[in-house]
């Protein structure tokens, strides 16, 4: 027996709903073998309104993790929270060194519940070093605005303008996640392959139990690419997968509720 292998270069969410924990759960649901290179550890303070602490891991240790995994070989990879410019540079270097060609960039800029970009210099480095190497990038509205540098995204035309700009910066494919935040009767995402726009729609789900949704979407897309799906097919299936996960999200404590990663296969679409 052999399995397709995937890598997530991302942070660890101590609460288990997002980050590499979400990625591994999602990889398992897609029958791919997931491996992890940790860039940071994120904790939450139960005595201070669940505020986040982010503790980067030294780039030299990240490099050793990557060499371990890439010596085994992978079929696709994704990135999530990247703790420093050094780690972003390292990721780009390893992609070139090992000739990786299926790469999903989830351009994480803030923690859930936080409202400031973690490190603005990281956004600049992602724009310069990772977008040109990305098979696909999966920003939400805020992240797309930051990458495109076009200002806040409030309309479909804004989404299209940002998608074109991000594609021009080097990403081969772009999906901007409008979700339920976008002012539309349905939850919409916009996919752009450099030639045509495709609008992906689902019914809006009225819930706040969506912790880890972005990581889960990117991980599902990565697994689908590893399994041989086209980028467009990978994105469409990932949207169905994460929609089911959100629909069955659950309350963890008074602060957060994660998505249910097994919902798609347990309950269907």
UniProtKB/TrEMBL annotation:
> Boundaries of each Pyridoxamine kinase/Phosphomethylpyrimidine kinase domain copy?
13-259
Q: According to the UniProt entry, what is the EC number of this protein?
A: 2.7.1.35
**Gene Ontology molecular functions:** pyridoxal kinase activity
EC category: transferase
Return the InterPro entries for the record. HMP/HMP-P_kinase_dom (IPR004399), PM/HMP-P_kinase-1 (IPR013749), Ribokinase-like (IPR029056)
What is the top-level taxon of the source organism?
Answer: Bacteria
What chemistry does it catalyse, as a reaction equation?
pyridoxal + ATP = pyridoxal 5'-phosphate + ADP + H(+)
Q: Which Pfam families match?
A: Phos_pyr_kin
Q: Does the keyword Electron transport apply?
A: no
Record keywords, A-Z: ATP-binding, Kinase, Magnesium, Metal-binding, Nucleotide-binding, Transferase
What's this protein's family per the entry? Answer: Belongs to the ThiD family.
Q: What is this protein called?
A: pyridoxal kinase
Which source organism does the UniProt entry give? Answer: Virgibacillus alimentarius
């Amino acid at each position: 027996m052999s399995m397709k292998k995937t890598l997530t270069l991302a942070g660890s969410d101590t609460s288990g709903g997002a980050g590499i924990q979400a990625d591994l759960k999602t990889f398992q649901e897609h029958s791919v073998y997931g491996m992890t290179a940790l860039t940071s550890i994120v904790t939450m303070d139960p005595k201070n309104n669940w505020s986040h602490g982010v503790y980067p891991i030294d780039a030299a240790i990240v490099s050793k993790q990557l060499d371990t995994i890439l010596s085994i070989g992978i079929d696709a990879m994704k990135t999530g929270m990247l703790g420093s410019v050094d780690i972003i540079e390292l990721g780009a270097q390893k992609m070139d060194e090992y000739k990786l060609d299926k790469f999903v960039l989830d351009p994480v800029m803030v923690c859930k519940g936080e409202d400031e970009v973690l490190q603005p210099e990281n956004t600049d480095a992602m724009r310069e070093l990772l977008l040109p190497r990305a098979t696909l990038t999966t920003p939400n509205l805020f992240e797309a605005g930051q990458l495109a540098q076009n200002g806040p995204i409030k309309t479909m035309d804004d989404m299209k303008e940002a998608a074109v700009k991000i594609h021009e910066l080097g990403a081969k494919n772009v999906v901007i996640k409008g979700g339920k935040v976008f002012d539309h009767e349905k939850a919409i995402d916009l996919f752009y392959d450099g030639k045509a726009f495709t609008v992906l729609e689902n019914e809006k789900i009225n819930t706040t139990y969506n912790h880890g949704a972005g990581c889960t979407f990117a991980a599902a897309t990565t697994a689908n690419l590893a399994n041989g799906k086209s980028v467009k097919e990978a994105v469409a299936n990932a949207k169905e997968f994460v929609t089911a996960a959100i629909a069955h999200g659950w309350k963890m404590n008074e602060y957060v509720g994660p998505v249910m990663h097994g919902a798609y296969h347990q309950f269907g679409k």
